[in-house]
């Protein structure tokens, strides 16, 4: 496996734990964080020029970190975060890829 991928796994778990800590300490509300993650994913998916450059799996890969952090926020308070478990949960809950509109097929 590429070393950068392993480093990103660690970074995602660290950011997820920091996010959960902020919520537990009451510095941000869970719904605010969920809203920020939803806005981030929507922004990525609405960047049509970029999404059209990517294969379906690469488009999903771009959104994976956001969806991973969202799944981590849903994990039980205090439960340790296992990257493989959360990654599996994210993979199983992928949204259906929108079909290309007729106007984009020209």
Describe the structure in your own words.
With 106 residues, the protein is an all-alpha fold. The chain has one domain (3-93). Helix content is 70%, strand content 0%. It has helices at 3-24, 30-46, 48-53, 56-74, 83-92.
Number of helices: 5
User: How are helices and strands ordered from N to C?
Assistant: HHHHH
The whole-number mean of residue pLDDT values reads: 86
Shape: globular
Radius of gyration: 15 Å
Helix content: 55-70%
Question: Could you give the distance between the termini?
Answer: 38 Å
What is the count of β-strands? 0
Strand content: under 5%
Q: What are the low-pLDDT stretches, counting only 5+ consecutive residues below 50?
A: 98-106
- Could you describe the largest sheet, including whether it forms a barrel? none
Secondary structure category: mainly alpha
Number of self-contained structural domains? 1
